Amino acid sequence: PGPDITDQPALLEYARDSGQTAWHTVGTCRIGPPGKGVVDDHLRVHGVQGLRVIDASVMPTLASSNTNAPAIMLGERGADLVLGDASS
């Protein structure tokens, strides 16, 4: 931050002013039980029949790399889940 940041409030202000995102948001529709997550382990939205979320928003945490590969894997697994439910 530089020599002008000398206390905790100044450091916090610096972080708020200069922090940014890479726009790889995840976790906005986490997998988990009702009350702790938005979707179940088959990516079905709790309380909404026929709706699934199959994208990076179901990831509970951000990967230490780009989210592209995990998102593709989620899409592949989600397609398998949809097809499996449709055939049963």
Fold and architecture overview:
It is a single chain. With 88 residues, the protein is mainly α. The chain has one domain (22-87). The protein has two helices and no strands. The protein has helices at 8-18, 68-87. The mean pLDDT is 91.
Write the layout of secondary structure elements.
Layout: H1 8-18, H2 68-87
Please name the defining characteristics of this protein.
88 residues; mainly alpha
Précis, in short:
With 88 residues, the chain is mainly alpha-helical.
H/E element sequence: HH
Percent of residues in beta strands: under 5%
Q: Tell me the number of strands.
A: 0
* Major sheet size, sense and barrel closure: none
Global morphology: elongated
Instruction: Determine the N-to-C terminus distance.
Output: 58 Å
